[in-house]
Amino acid sequence: MEKVLIVDDQHQIRMLLGIALRREFEVLEASDGATALQMVKAHLPGVVLLDVMMPGEPDGLGVLDAIKGNDATRHIQVAMLTARGQVADQVDAKARGADAYFTKPFSPLAVMNWVTASLVRAAPASDFTQL
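Predicted structure:
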């Protein structure tokens, strides 16, 4: 079962997304950037749903930089979940390697559809030469 890591300091956001995603995926949760990086290293999720503004260091953009700057994790699909909806914020996140950007309040269904599509795209192609 594919793993999805939800990183947000708001428990309600983690709970809402967890309910939507648990039917299809193994859901992991972190409430801060340091824990998120530990979980990425330990579990190598296929997708990370990442809040930008969190207390402590690193913040969401720091986590994004760490994931996309590491050869072992740069393949992980990262969607930013944030109240920062300015175009400049979206451009910055994209330049750092974000694969998607959802502005709060967001549609849990839209996020789930993106997660599903991202994991399907990332799945290795089947080898039918053995048939």
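Summary: The longest helix spans residues 108-122.
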